Structures are given as C-alpha cells and as structure tokens.
Amino acid sequence: MRYLLILLLFGLQSVQLFAQTNTYSISFENAEHHEASISATFQNIKTDTLSLRMSRTSPGRYALHEFAKNVYNFKAIDSKGNNLKVTRTNPYEWNVFGHDGTVKISYTLFANRGDGTYSQIDETHAHLNIPATFMYALSLKDRKIEVDFNTRDDLKWKIATQLPQVKDNTYSAPNLYYFMDSPTELSNHKVREFTVDGQTIKLALHDPGTEEAADLYFEKVKKVVLAEKEVFGELPTFDYGSYTFLACYIPNASGDGMEHRNSTILTSTRTLANGGMDGNIGTVSHEFFHSWNVERIRPKSLEPFNFEQANMSGELWFAEGFTSYYTNLILCRAGLITPKKYVEGITGTFNYVWNSPARQFFNPIEMSYQAPFVDAATSVDPVNRENTFISYYSYGSVLGLALDLSLREKGLNLDDFMKLVWNTYGKTESPYTIENLDKTLNTYAGEDFGNNFFNSFIYKSEMPSYTELFKTVGVSLSQNKEAAYIGAAVSITDDLNGKIRSNTKIGSPAYIAGLDKDDIITAINGDKFPNGIQFNKFIENEFKPNDKLSISFLRNGKERKTEVTLTADPNYTISLIEKNEEAPSKKVLKARKAWLKVE
Known about the structure:
The protein is an alpha+beta fold. Helix content is about 30%, strand content about 25%.
C-alpha cells in the first residue's frame, strides 16, 4: 500500500506539472505560401477570461512591430471541443471566455521576412522569431512552455535553437521570457561546433555552399569567439552549456543580426560563395559581443523587456555603440582584417558623427532615446534625421574609440574597463544605469578622468581631440582643403538634371542657399551637367572652395534660382601614418600593437 500511495502521489504530481505547462505545436504544410499552422493548449486556468496576445516588440528591438497583423483564422475551444467566445478590445489581443479551465487555440500565421525581427516560412526554411510567431498569455508568463516543431522531412529540415530539447522535435522553455528570446531555425542547415572551457559553441549554417566553405567560415567564427573572450577574460555562463549562431545566408533573407541570451540570428542575402565569407563575419563579431554587453551587462531601462510597448533606453550608446567599436577591432585582433583595413574603415563612421549637425540637438543619451523611432521603425511622414539624429551605434563607436585611446595614454585600456563592468554588473546580472557606468569609470581611471569623459561627451555633445589621440598610435587624420563641398546628396537624372534626394545638412552651402530635398537642379552657372559623372565628383573636379555657383532649380514645378558659395570638404581621411611615408616611433608602434594586438 505504501508503494501504491507513492506511485499515486508521483502520478498526481506529474499531472499537475503537465497542467502547469503551456504547449504549442507548429506545422508548415502550406510553406510555399508562407503560412504556418499553429495550435496551443492552456490548462488549469483559474480566471473566467484568458487574454491571449501577439507581441508588439521583440528582444533586441526597441520599436513597435505589431506582429498581430499577420495572424488570421483564429479559433478557440475548450477541453471538450466546444467553441468559445472571443472578444477583441485592441488589435493585438484576443479575450477568450466561457471555458472549462482549458483553452485550446489555433490560428494561421503568414510570415515572409527572414531577419532578426520577423519570421519567414517557405520551402527553404522556417525561420522563426518567437514573438513574431506565437501567441502568449501574459497571466501565465511563469509557466513552463513546450513546443513541438513539426519539421518538413521531405525538405530535410533540422532544428536549431537555444531551447533545450525534451525529446524528438519537442523543445522547452522555463518561462515565457526565455521562450520569447529563443529564435529557432528549421532548415537543411550544416552544423559545426567546438568546445571552449567546457561550453559548446555551435554554428547552424543555412547556406547553399560546400562543406569545405562551411569549415573555412567556422574557423573565422572560432577566431572571433576566442578574441572576444580575451576582452572579458572568460565566456559568459550559457544557460544550457551552449551558444548557437543561427546563420541564414540565402538570397531570400534580409540582412540583419539580432542578439539573444544563448544564441544570435545572422541573416544576409550574401551566401558564403557570393561575398559572405568576408562580408558576413562582422555581424558575427558584433552579435557575439552582445552575449556579454547587453544580454548580461544589461541596462536597467530594459529590465524587464516589455512586449506590449516600445522599449526606450538611454544606455544604447554603450550597449550598442561600444559593441560596434569592438566589432571590427575584434576582426583585426583575430587576424581577419589587416590593421590598415581596420584603421581606414573607421573613416566613414567618424565623418558621419563628427560632421553631423545633430549634436546640437541631442547628446548620446538622448540619441539613444530615439531608438523606438529609428530601430527598424516605420512611418509614412518625412522626417529630418539627416539633421537631428546620429545612430547610437556610430556615436557610441567613436566615443568608445576615444575612451580606449585616452585610457591607453594613462597606461590603462578599454578592455580592462569592460572587464570591470563585466565583473561588477555582468557576472552578477545586476542591471546598470548610466550613473553606474560613470562611477565605474571613476573607480577604474580616477574621478577627474571619469567625470571629464561623462560630463563632456555623454551628458553633453562635445567631441574628443581625435587628432592628438590618433597620433599616439600612429594614425593620421587629415583633410583636403582644396576639395570643394556643396553639402547635398544629388542623383543625376536621365535628362541630365540633378535631383536632391535627401534633406540638405544644416550649415552646408546647399542648406544656406535654401536648397532642399526633391529640388531639381537644372543648371549650374547656366550649364547642364556633363554626362557620365557623379555630382560630387563634378563639383570637386570643376570648382574650388569659395567659388560662387548660380543654381537654377525646379521646386514643385516652378523655376527658381539661388547662389551657392562652396566651402572646403569637411570630411577627414583616416589612415596609418605609413601611408604618408612616415615611420612610427618605437613608442608609437608599441602603443599600436597593444591596441590592435598584432605583431
């Protein structure tokens, strides 16, 4: 009798445990038309109404995306198969009532964008971003979740995900938050893996190339992983002992990268054989760095992540921007790009930030606040981003560069500062604030240094002295004072007119002259444009700074004229000083090698 009671008790506990598990199933019979059939069961519901939702956001994104727009054919029944009543009070919520403690739902999902935010279903793969795919019950957010992925065996699909496997095609999540953070790739992908300090790093590669190409690419991935480990001194502790790169390099994907706690999505239209071998590895570098900086070194403003509204954070200049600084630096340190290519590659980002009029409106914190408006956000009305916004990726990247070189002048470095932030906030998973970063820099480099950096460049919009900082590592920052500049992005039309394709930059010659987006330049000094030359090249070749140009243009179909006074091109060229036949001193060469970690 004692053993019988034990067995009965064990059986009762198993039933209760199962009743506390939300179960999902997804299948892809109509994949050629980008549809998935999804069902879910929610048991032991204590309230008279169960509210089911589609997320409006996705981890790693800050804007609204309204995934409910791709859901249709929704049905709800109870445990006996009776149809349940459903009401809608907003576009992304279904309220189900009249149930018997169990609600079973089914719906159809349309999905045809393969990137880090959305889902894509076709005969090449089922690329599933969980918030874009599955409904959820917020009231049951702490329950365990199990999902059965019904793969297309005829298409040789396998499953790649950070979700732990239960058995066969069934995977689980300990709660809703982990489930929503677990993208999943179903495809005929190649798998590579290696072990670092007892943890497994996997690459699930959906690419049409050869096994040899996959091997070669994975060697690059391994170098990135090990170089980034050196920055922090250790890998994060991944929840199930592994980290998975979900790489889709196929023509029908959209270029993107999106970090998650124990995995990342990497998508590109470039296959390995078509430029992706070198062109895609930068996204690997950026996203894996996030496994420390963002996923565990976590801004308090993003905790907990809100699936019902836009997520705003003032720390993105650090979370995204400093990660962007390390992106190509890591490639250089790993030997995947040369120091020359790395240094010259800084040029575009530097000029974008340095010459932007937007710094007069917002500091890096406030630029970070703009994320819900710019992070893959969509709107139909024109905006003035050319003059009011600098990407927090770029802004933070050039500030990370300045901080690193400034610290190195003191015998310190950004790597060790990042280690301190990691040990203080990342390993303990204690969300940080901007004030915490300020205090940590004070601790690491002294109050005068830390306060000056934050007060000048974070709380305000001043720019560091890059010319002097670059000199310390043998890098040249130069301008061509003889090159003319007008400050308008112009496309030459078939009839040899010039259409201004974006807002002219505040303070530029074109802006001062009153030229604006969509104006059609018909003549300069009475002449048409010559055929077969880009507009900016034409200005540089034919004119000098301080030249005055008589501009004829059309605005809303009416002929107008203005005068433009050209200035010198404000853009800089960044290069190693050896390019100018200048030899670095031993001190400078030593500093450069310490920075780039190359011989």
